[in-house]
Write a structure and sequence with these properties.
Length: 370
């Protein structure tokens, strides 16, 4: 690359940066995206809940800042435990950090039944404080397991905040990787077809039309049959299709650009086709390309949701925003937070991507911001 190319690249980057810094809406959108990405990256490590941990005592728990278990739920939980242990819970005293009670039965109480406390999500390992002479009554104490569900739990009792953040990793990674593939293939293919024109353009675009005619779902099913289900397979399937729209958009822009005077001057100076594409055609298509790329990320996320709904996408215990929204939609009447939490994360990301795409389109427009 020549020194002039480096200067052109530096001036383009400087101009884009200056325009973006002057666009407050685009800057706020970029801050939101960085915040969402950072939360999805480190958030699951800070919530205190593994994304696949099932709390059997907390299914469909509403969001709350308070600690669980609530005072009114301890005694019913003890009654359920006593029923499973085939004893009676008597003289229950619930403290701030522990619960004390007497386990009574018609015959001697086996101390091994205390393991039920440790298996519960509400209590820790219990210890015997006193035993009656005939062994029919045990006074025990068990610590309370305090936990918090800021965004509630899902139908199985898994922390929804942790699963939303962990699902954001999958959705954002898939959206960014598929968009990168679409940009890499679509921009190069469309720019070459639009600039070359004639028979080369006709042959290249007929190939695009043939790929458009292939049924996408059938293509994914065939990949699953031969290679099995995986996140990498989704990336391959989506990336192999989404570049087609990008190629058409870039081709239309390239066909208009090749008639400009500066392109004809470059041809008259003897620049090669590759140099003209690199220095004149591709840079002048970046505005609509970036705007489309910003919209392609949410489109890929929604497409992944559709594949997961069909059972061809992300599989349990892994999750994604699409899977969580599909699960929440089925429980919206009884547990609306299961839909609202991942939907709010997705909507915030989509709006930020859209506004940032518009800001980048204006910044990359050689005619200046609109």
């Amino acid at each position: 690359m020549s020194a002039r190319d480096l200067d052109d690249g530096a001036s383009l980057a400087l101009r884009v940066r200056r325009r973006l810094l002057g666009d407050r809406l685009a800057g706020a959108s970029l801050a939101v995206l960085l915040g969402v990405a950072l939360a999805c990256l480190v958030g699951p490590l800070l919530t205190g809940h593994p994304y696949d941990r099932i709390y059997y005592d907390y299914p469909r728990t509403p969001p709350s800042l308070a600690l669980y278990p609530r005072p009114g739920t301890v005694e019913p939980a003890l009654a359920r435990l006593a029923f499973r242990m085939r004893v009676r819970a008597e003289d229950v005293a619930v403290g701030p950090d522990a619960v004390r009670l007497t386990l009574a039965a018609d015959g001697p109480v086996d101390a091994r039944v205390l393991t039920y406390f440790a298996r519960s999500d509400l209590f820790g390992a219990a210890r015997v404080l006193a035993r009656s002479g005939d062994g029919t009554r045990l006074t025990v104490e068990a610590p309370l397991r305090r936990t918090r569900f800021l965004a509630g739990t899902d139908g199985l009792g898994r922390d929804l905040l942790t699963r939303t953040l962990a699902g954001g990793r999958v959705s954002l990674a898939l959206g960014l990787m598929a968009t990168a593939v679409a940009l890499g293939i679509g921009v190069a293919y469309g720019a070459a077809a639009g600039y070359l024109g004639g028979r080369a353009d006709a042959v290249m675009m007929r190939l695009v039309d043939i790929l458009y005619a292939l049924p996408f779902v059938f293509f994914v099913i065939m990949l699953v049959v031969f290679f099995g289900r995986s996140v990498g397979l989704i990336f391959l399937a989506v990336g192999a299709v989404e570049w087609l729209d990008m190629a058409r958009i870039v081709r239309a822009e390239a066909m208009a650009i090749r008639r400009q005077d500066y392109v004809r001057a470059a041809e008259a100076l003897g620049l090669t086709t590759a140099a003209i594409l690199r220095r004149h055609v591709v840079p002048n298509t970046l505005g609509p390309v970036v705007a489309f790329a910003a919209l392609l990320v949410p489109r890929v996320i929604l497409l992944e949701s559709f594949l997961s709904f069909l059972g061809l996408g992300v599989q349990e215990p892994m999750t994604s925003w699409g899977v969580l929204i599909a699960d929440g939609a089925r429980s919206i009447e009884t547990s609306p937070w299961m839909l609202l939490v991942p939907a709010c994360a997705l909507v915030a990301t989509l709006m930020a991507l859209t506004l940032l795409g518009e800001g980048l389109a204006d910044a990359l427009d050689p005619r200046g911001p609109r």
